[in-house]
Amino acid sequence: MSSKKHKKCTFEELYILCLLWGKSHTNYKTVKGRTRYQLYLNNYEQNLLTSIRTDGSYKDSTIEIHTVNGSYVAEIRNVKYTVPKQSPQTPVVDNHIENIVKKNDYVTENKILREAVIKQQAKLEQLESILDIKESITDVELYEIKPLDEETEEDTTAVALLSNLHYEMTVLKESVMGLNEYNPAIAKQRIETFFVKLVDAINHNKEHLKVRRLILGFLGDFINGWLRSEAEQTNSMAPQEAIYDLKSILLSGLKYVDMHLDVEEIWIVGIIGNHARTTDKMQHGNATQTNYEYFLYRDLEKMCELLGLSKIRFYIPKSSMAVIPIYDKKYLFAHGNQFKYSGGIGGIYPSMLRWYLRVAKLFKIEKAFIAHWHTAIAIKEVIINGSVVGYDSYAMSFGFDYEEPQQQLVFLNKKHGVILHVPIYLNN
Prior knowledge:
- By secondary structure, this protein is of the alpha/beta class.
- 36% of the residues lie in helices and 20% in strands.
- The chain is built from 10 helices and 19 strands.
- It has helices spanning 11-21, 43-55, 98-103, 105-137, 184-209, 229-234, 239-260, 292-307, 349-363, 393-397; strands spanning 5-9, 37-41, 58-59, 64-68, 71-76, 79-82, 156-162, 211-218, 265-270, 312-315, 321-326, 329-334, 367-370, 377-378, 382-384, 406-407, 409-413, 417-421, 424-425.
């Protein structure tokens, strides 16, 4: 393959090269601050330049170049061009042969041929590059990869979380600078979207991941309640009315899942939140008995039985947490209000991980699924659910990051643990 190099030339050498190329020397400029020209020459042109500099003469079938009294003379079939000592705007041609030059068709023919040769040479270099690549590829050994045997695929369980609905809460656009809006009508739409996308996501991955069951964690704060005096003024309805509406929406969603989700069994784990309590402060000994959500879950369980939703089973503990065995490991389901945000560097992580280490040591758990914090987080130890309500004035007043309304879905493999994380976004 021919190689090109940058060469610095005098005006005289440029002038002679331009004769060969059929170009005008006025198209070229000297190197900035210098009197020489820098050209990009192939081997043929480099040899020509070397010959001119050594003996002042170069011959081929079409051109002869030699020196006369210190000036270069290029002779093409008896047509002589004398290179001027200074750079004129137009080439200087001997007057006595001017008419011959005009009539010499060979000059024009030579220019066309040289342009054609240059184009063909460029194509040749391109083809040689392709051949070099092809030769390097032939050194790679290719072999056939066979798909995995279906019998070796491990069993998988889908774990989805639903929490932080705050159904009767009202979020006005004006209160959050247009970032969100929320009311019971929007809540109903987002909850329905959750069930539909949940079924689609699991069915889409079922065959490849061998999904046999769904564990759906109801992790509390389904209603906003009257936890704060502000909620009594801004909620769109009373807590009892919100529970009544939710019962219909959730039951319809569970019916949809039972009918359309192609799995063998569906388990609902019902965990209470802190917003649905009937007491001023959170009580521990009778937390479930003083919480609207506990009785919501119990009613849903009975209604699913009456409707004949045979794949659905409920586990509703009388504590604020539940340890669920999945394969040969244990997983904790809790609302997430068991620890507090301490502020400072690290956000909730320091206090959350301290809490996790305590419960992991106590119950020998592999991972914790929690809610409460309205922030979707997935790390090795803990998966935190997002929210249905989305961004609100409380979050904005503290400068918390904006987050789309979303819920969590992960796939737990029997052998490897969490192998796929699929956030379920609720805004269409």
